[in-house]
Each structure stands twice: as C-alpha cells, then as structure tokens.
Amino acid sequence: MKEAFVGGVLLDGRQDMAPQKDRVVLVEDGKITGIVDKEDKEAYQDFQIIDLQGAYLMPGLVNLHVHLAGSGKPKKKPIDPVKSVKQITSSGLMRAVGHAMVANFAKTQLLSGTTTIRTVGGIADFDTRIRDEINAGKRIGPRILASGMAISVPGGHMAGSLAYIAHSAEEARDYVDVIAKDKPDLIKLMITGGVMDAEVVGEPGVLRMPPEYVKAACDRAHELGFQVAAHVESPKGVAVALENGVDSIEHGAKPDAHIAALFKENGAFQVATLCPALPYGLFDCQVSHATKEQKANGKVVFDGVIEMAKENLAQGVPVGLGTDTACPFVTQYDMWRELDFYGKYCGVSNAFALYTGTLLNATLAGVGDVTGSIEVGKCADMIVTKGNPLENLSVLRHVEMVVKDGVIYDHPQVKKIPEVEVEMDKFNRVK
Do 255 and 106 sit in the same domain of this protein? Predict the structure, then answer.
C-alpha cells in the first residue's frame, strides 16, 4: 500500500511542534517514507490520496500505564480482584472468555486514538499473547509493551490477582525468571499499597515490599535486559524504589531533596497518573462510592503525583503520562483526559502535553525510534482530529481517523460509559 495524506495540518509530535500546512505525508508498507510539499506532486503521483480536508494529522497517542483487564466502569461496591481472576482463569473456557475480553479492550484503545500502550500488570499471560497476536496480524489493537504479571508480597497491592506473591528476596528474583518465560517487555513491581488498602488516613502508599526484595528483582531484571516499573504512592516507597534500581516510578508522591537527587543519579523517570486518583480525591463520595477515608487518601495521592511531576519538570527529570486504566472512572478510551489534566493541574502547555503523550512517552518506553512522531523512517502511527489540540486538547476525544502501521481506521467508534463521561467532564477542560 502507498498512501499520501494530503490537505491536512501536520503536528509532527516533536517538542517544538507547530502547525505545518501544505505538507504531504507519504506512507509505504506501513512506514513513513517521505514528508513533502503538496506542490511536489511527482513525489506522490502513484500514491492513493487520503484527503484530510483541513483536519489535523498527528502521531497516535502513547499510554504508559494500562491494565487491560477492565472497562473502568465504576461499581457501587468493590470487587475482590483475587476472586475475579481465579474465576476467569479457572478453566480453558473461562480463560478463552477472559482472553477475548482483554483483546477487545486493546482494540478499544486503538480505535480511540492510542496506537501504543504499556501494560503494567495483567492476568496470567493474556497481555503478551494479545501483543503477539496483534503483531502477527491476527487481532486489531495498538502496539503493546507488556509486563505480564507483576510481583507483589503478602498483603501487597494486587497480590494474587495481577501480581505474584513473593515471600522472600529470592522468590522476588525467581519470579522475574517466571515472568520472563512469557517474553515481556518490562517487569512491574508493586512496592507500596494504594488508596484502597491504606491503613491510616493521610498515609496511603504504605511500604509493603522490603528493600532487599526490590533490589533482588531489579538486579535480575536488569541482568535480563528489562526495565523495571514500580507502583509507588508514598515518599518512603519512592525512595526505596529508586535506591534499589527501579527505572520508573508509576504514580508518585510528594518529593524531597533526597528523592530529587535519586531520580537524577539513577536516570529514572516518573509516569504521572492523574486520572485514577482524581475521582477518589475530588468527587463527592456519593458519586465515587468511596469512603471518607478513601477520599482523603485519594487526595493525598492526587496531590503527591502533581507535586512530584512539577518538581521533576523543574529538575529536568522526564515525566511520562499514563491513565491507570481500568481503575474506577478510568476507561480504555480516554487517554486524552490524562493529557488535559496534565495541562490543567501541572501547568504545562497543550503542546507540551501532546508531545509528552506521543514522542516523549514513546521514548521513555524505549520505542521512540519506532513511533511517537511523524518522521521519515518511523511506523505510520497517526490520528486525525477536526480541531487543533494545541488550542483545545478535548478535540482528541473524537478522532476522525486512526492509522496504525499504515492501516487506516476511518471514523472509528468506541462504546462509551455515560456515567464516566458526565462526571469526568466536570473536571476536564472541555470545550
């Protein structure tokens, strides 16, 4: 296939991106082979013309923190994740049902405009299998960088559901080898607790995983060539993670001078996740179905993620973005909200938020040479919107076209959750 995308306004995804008119993006066999002036018609005379009619063409979004096994639809009562995972893996038939469900959520990610995702804790080997099926052309979905199952400890975050339970440093190291058999792209650790399992109001993110477990797992992961991402929601947890080899802090907490120094010394980065804590911390409890204690702790986490992101930005430490799909009110189709919250609460420009959600995220995930920007030699992973996201990021919620590896999905449709749309829109800058 040879396609020429003409008549649009190009936003190439780079940090200094500015709207470029009269540019034509040439795609052959899924790769970007040229970006030429529209008057250079000889360069694309034998290409299929894709007329964008004045719309905006930009890289597909990249989401660095996804759990594919859930819709994000809020529930009035919490569901036991251990029981749910045991049920979905209880037989060959149930595993097939679960696999198909997760694959459908991956498809939703793509059709909403997210062309690359990084999964950080999933059911069994579902994520890596679906990644391989997409790569083989057997399923429709985004580029997936998968961690597979994570590693936790007794009583730890997602222990026994999306994470193995390590009882010693040696077991933590051994579980890296177990996970490696499924050929993941990274390793995920659950170092602290979260909002739902906080023991004291004002102290979410209790340290669960001992430092020696963290070091053992990180050392083995690095020996095998894997980055290590870690769920962390307290200052103590961040320090332990960075002191013992973690490469990315998922979520974050209020920083101090020691933490700031550790980020720089280790070359680590933060993946800020504003979407999951916001409903707990800012919604009315009757809407979020959270207890007063969970609301208070949700606000602590939300503020901590923001403070860490601001400090890291000030210190030149990379900050990526992820949604933490499928927490309550966090869907498989709303990456645009994370970009918008980044601008609203962390004070970055729309252009910087879009750059972060495309090229920077791809670079942090290790695929910046493959995707994340519209440049010659990269995969043709692109989206089209009617409006200009540099002026209004909410235009990203309605994509006119998704292109992944050169395959075009014209006017894609995803099923949305009305309650989420109504409640989250109250906090996004929707125009």
Answer: yes
| Mean residue pLDDT across the chain | 96
How many Å apart are CA 165 and CA 159, to the nearest integer?
6
Q: What confidence score (pLDDT) does residue 201 get?
A: 81
Number of independent structural domains in the chain: 2
Q: pTM (2 decimals)? A: 0.97
Question: What pLDDT score does 203 carry?
Answer: 74
Contact 54, 66 (CB under 8 A): no
% of the chain beyond a pLDDT of 70: 100
Q: 202 pLDDT exceeds 90?
A: no
Which pLDDT score, from 0 to 100, does residue 271 have?
A: 98
Q: Is the pLDDT of residue 217 over 90?
A: yes
Each residue's pLDDT tens digit, 323-334: 999 999 999 999
User: Does 35 fall in a domain?
Assistant: yes
Q: Which amino acid makes up residue 306? A: I
CATH number for the domain that contains residue 222:
3.20.20.140
Q: Which domain holds residue 45?
A: 2-59+372-425
Token representation of residue 62: 């990249």
Reduced 3-state DSSP string for the chain: CEEEEECCEECCCCCCCCCECCEEEEEECCEEEEEEECCCHHHHCCCEEEECCCCEEEECEEEEEECCCCCCCCCCCCCCHHHHHHHHCCCHHHHHHHHHHHHHHHHHHHHCCEEEEEECCCCCCHHHHHHHHHHCCCCCCCEEEECCCEEECCCCCCECCCEEECCCHHHHHHHHHHHHCCCCCEEEEECECCCCCCCCCCCCCCECCCHHHHHHHHHHHHHCCCEEEEEECCHHHHHHHHHCCCCEEEECCCCCHHHHHHHHHHCCEEEECHHHHHHHHHCCHHHHCCCHHHHHHHHHHHHHHHHHHHHHHHHCCCEEECCCECCCCCCCCCHHHHHHHHHHHHCCCHHHHHHHHHHHHHHHCCCCCCCCCCCCCCECCEEEECCCCCCCHHHHHCCCEEEECCEEEECCCCCCCHHHHHHHHCCCCCC
Q: What token pair was written down for 45?
A: 């005379």
Sign of CA dihedral 287, 290, 294, 298: negative
Tell whether 413 and 297 lie within a shared domain. no
